[in-house]
Amino acid sequence: MFGEIRNEHGERLDYTYHKGNGNRIVVIGHGVTGNKDRPALIALAEGLAEAGISTIRFSFSGNGESEGKFVDSTISKEVGDLGTVLDSLKDYKICYVGHSMGGAVGVLRAAVDERIEVLVSLAGMVHTNEFAKREFGDAIPDKGFMWDEPDCPLSQAYVDDMALIDSVAKQASKFGVPWLLVHGTEDDIVPIQDSIDILQYANEPTELLELPGVDHVFSDDGAPLMVEKVVAWIDQKL
To answer: Most Cβ neighbours (<10 Å): which of 104, 111, 159, 186?
Structure first.
């Protein structure tokens, strides 16, 4: 429906559209080493469509079936990718949902882009430099891999970008749209403390929804619970 979407580097971004009704649309972005087809993200898109809310879930450049190289993937580049997707959604009321690193992308984009009228962070990464050191500190940039996955080389560009951003916490004060932070208490990739920390900088109206026993990727019963809560909240706010 939206035709081919290419970022500012000319790279085609792979996306899946779920048709709803009216002029409301949700854009879903994934986390590091992920793509648009993560089970929880598919479940969320399907739940939103069933509620009559159109949805686009897309893979950032260099990830999934999108064009580009994974080694060029950084938060800063993905902020640009998201802007390109928003460019294709004229006349829509837009909510952005970002998972993990995609959550950090959403905060940075919302801080400079008024087209995002509603925001949701799913296990959103906040302290980027701490994350990179904690998860990838034992790997050598441009030689090692993220979580020992050969398809996900750790680049110096990624490490440098994470360090330069350091934390997206203070960017939260630059926008005041309805914002839902969703975080599982058993998240061992991005600790729930990240959401607690950024809540201190956020403007009203911002809410933190803690999901007891739920992990980073909303596995098992975590996905249905997340989908139920997030769909109902977006339906009310967008």
So the answer is: 104
